[in-house]
Design a protein that fits this description.
This protein is mainly β and 659 residues long. Among the domains are: 286-496, Ribonuclease Inhibitor (Leucine-rich repeat, LRR (right-handed beta-alpha superhelix)); 508-582, Alpha-Beta Horseshoe (Leucine-rich repeat, LRR (right-handed beta-alpha superhelix)), CATH 3.80.10.10. It is 7% helix and 22% strand. The protein contains seven helices and 45 strands. The protein has a 21-stranded parallel sheet. Strand 34 (468-472) and strand 35 form a beta hairpin. Helix 5 (607-621) crosses helix 7. The chain is globular and about 85 Å long. InterPro entries: Leu-rich_rpt, Leu-rich_rpt_typical-subtyp, LRR_dom_sf, LRR_R13L4/SHOC2-like, RLP23-like.
Length: 659
């Protein structure tokens, strides 16, 4: 429904339950006449696109038991006249734009069992007085605000909560001692809460009853007892929260702890755990779906028993010191969506069994010592969207079936390997491609005389719609038009020959083009000016000739100014600005003159581009995964795949100069 909420509702004198949730009221304010409904007990206006301030007159509905205002566009402060709501059991104003402090009068609502003010812009100190009479409180959510919890070291809360969320509040630095009094905790989220130091021993006595435990993004340190214990999840919590532990991004150390069976998600990434992955990892059971041990100091081989976890959807073991070969047993994890083993010391060949992972969408094996050919079985991965085999020791031909069968590829990186033969022209059939990184993949001694990829007229035009905010030169620009998906091509260091095809200038969504260190000849097409989005161009170390087109000197106003000379260097027959080489007929007073612009390095300025690439593929690849269905802090951590792509692409970004 939309439009006005009419005052004729006040004629319903006996109305007790009014539910207008999940409508579209187009930003209209909450009607003040609700206070006339003297018998109203339940008022649910959640997710209804309401705007304006919360009218203080709502505080006069003394019969109210439940007030739901979450997921709207409400602003202003919380009313300070809530003392009349003495019967109120649930107050939910989460996910709005409320500001100011939390009224201490809330502490007088003795019947309150649910208090949720999360995901607003509240700030200020929350003291013991805010909880003084909340003896029936069971759910407390303060997450994603700037509230500061300031209570005494000997404070004993009057409540026993089951759900406690204080993510992104200031709770520390000491570990909160008052948690020792909470014997009914089932859900605990203290992520990014400015807590540091050791976890006290008494916490392990109450942790066995916790079914959701999130301490991520703090400064906690020390070893963790083994095994971690979680209880079977009780009703009604089991409908909302899977059993999970997220202790990522801390300073924990020692051997890797594993929880008892029954857990579904475990993230211990970005810590200092060392030693091997326990062989007993298979004891986590078939319902275990998420495993992230990335960015630790783990050693040894990946245990073959990991293949017994057939419910796994995400495996991230990247950035460790793991060695040995990839166990073929991983091919039995039939539900797998993401396999990230990059940046380890893995060797051997890619097992054929990976071709059994028919639901796989993301495969990262880069920065290892993997050898052999790309196995034929990978052509079965019809859902694959990211394939990164870069920086290994792989050999053989680049298979043509990549372009023929892997129709949904968005990211393809085979850079820095030792492939032979030609780059298959079938790669031009990848309609969804956003990043094509084939730098330094071909050995000179095995190169053919010609490579046909540059002569393929155009990657077929396929587009998507969406909004993208990009920070360029200090301004936030919104791209709302449709964009061709291909945004980045790197074919550098491949000894490619022939002229630069006009077809490449039809890729109007292209942001980065790197063809450096090849044998490309001929002139730079004048139509390169059609690449309106081009932010980084590197044509250096080729055999190009003629004049640099004016569009390369001064691209479109509002986007770029001048590409630096290094983008065109080491082309002996190339002339014109920004090179210090005159072209025949150039005005002698202007030839070789460089515009007086800032020479700031685009290592900083081009960071917006790498973020844009990351947003492009992270948004599309992992949306169906468990992470988005659970917790925002988890999605922040594991959609950090965007940054990984940026790390790989940064070394070859050519410098530009911005006005």
């Amino acid at each position: 429904m939309s439009g006005e909420i009419r005052s004729s509702l006040t004629k319903l004198k006996s109305l007790r339950n009014l539910d207008l949730s999940s409508n579209s009221f187009m930003g209209i304010p909450i009607a003040e006449f609700f206070h006339s409904l003297k018998k109203l007990q339940y008022l649910n206006l959640e997710n209804s696109d309401l705007g304006g301030k919360i009218p203080s007159i709502l505080g006069n509905i003394s019969s109210l038991l439940n007030l739901g205002l979450s997921r709207n566009e409400l602003n202003g402060t919380l009313p300070f006249n809530l003392e009349n709501l003495s019967k109120l059991s649930t107050l939910d104003v989460s996910s709005n734009h409320l500001t100011g402090s939390l009224p201490s009068i809330i502490g007088q609502l003795s019947e309150l069992s649910v208090l949720d003010v999360s995901f607003n812009h509240l700030y200020g100190i929350v003291s013991e007085s805010h909880f003084s009479k909340l003896t029936k409180l069971e759910t407390l959510r303060f997450s994603s605000s700037s509230l500061i919890l300031k209570v005494g070291s000997n404070w004993i809360p009057p409540f026993q909560v089951q759900v406690l969320e204080m993510s992104s509040c200031h709770v520390g630095p000491p570990f909160p001692a008052w948690l020792q009094t909470q014997n009914e905790l089932g859900f605990l989220d203290l992520s990014n809460a400015s807590i540091s130091g050791l976890i006290p021993n008494w916490f392990w006595d109450i942790s066995s009853d916790i079914t959701w435990l999130n301490f991520s993004f703090n400064q906690l340190r020390g070893p963790i007892p083994y095994p971690l214990r979680l209880s079977p999840i009780p009703y009604p919590l089991r409908l909302s929260f899977p059993e999970s532990i997220d202790w990522s991004s801390n300073l924990f150390e020692g051997p890797l702890p594993l929880p008892n069976p029954g857990i579904k998600a475990l993230s211990l990434s970005n810590n200092q755990f060392s030693g091997p992955i326990p062989e007993s990892i298979d004891k986590l059971g078939e319902n275990f779906t998420f495993l992230s041990l990335a960015s630790n100091q783990l050693t040894g081989e990946i245990p073959p028993s990991i293949g017994e976890l057939q419910g796994l959807k995400i495996i991230d073991l990247s950035k460790n010191n793991l060695s040995g070969s990839i166990p073929s047993s991983i091919g039995r994890c039939y539900q797998l969506n993401v396999l990230d083993l990059q940046t380890n010391n893995l060797s051997g060949v890619i097992p054929e069994s990976l071709g059994q992972l028919l639901f796989l969408e993301t495969l990262y094996l880069s920065n290892n010592m993997i050898s052999g050919e790309i196995p034929l079985s990978l052509q079965n991965l019809l859902s694959l969207e990211t394939l990164d085999l870069g920086s290994n020791k792989m050999t053989g031909y680049i298979p043509s079936w990549i372009g023929r069968d892997l129709k949904f590829l968005r990211i393809l990186s085979l850079r820095s390997n030792a492939f032979t033969g030609e780059i298959p022209t079938t790669l031009a059939d990848l309609k969804h491609l956003q990043v094509l990184d084939l730098a330094e993949i071909l050995h000179e001694t095995h190169m053919q005389n010609r490579n046909n990829l540059l002569y393929h007229e155009i990657f077929p035009g396929y587009y998507y719609q969406g909004n993208l905010f990009v920070s360029i030169k200090g301004q936030s620009l919104e791209y709302t038009k449709t964009l061709y998906l291909l945004t980045c091509i790197d074919l550098s260091g491949n000894y490619l020959q022939g002229e630069l095809s006009l077809g490449i200038t039809k890729l109007v969504g292209l942001v980065v083009l790197n063809l450096s260190r090849n044998h490309i000849s001929g002139q730079i097409p004048q139509s390169i000016s059609e690449l309106h989005q081009l932010a980084s161009l590197d044509l250096s170390s080729n055999m190009l000739s003629g004049s640099i087109p004016p569009s390369c000197r001064i691209p479109f106003v509002g986007h770029l100014t001048t590409f630096e000379a290094s983008c065109f260097a080491d082309n002996p027959n190339l002339c014109g600005a920004p090179l210090d080489v005159e072209c025949p007929g150039d005005n002698s007073t202007n030839a070789g003159t460089k515009e007086k612009v800032s020479s700031r390095s685009c290592n900083d300025d081009n960071k917006w581009f790498y973020l844009a690439i990351g947003l492009g593929f992270a948004t599309n690849i992992l949306v169906p995964s468990l992470i988005l269905a659970t917790k925002k802090s988890w999605s922040d951590a594991y959609f950090g795949f965007a940054e990984k792509v940026a790390d790989r692409l940064t070394p070859w970004a050519c410098k530009t100069r911005w006005v």
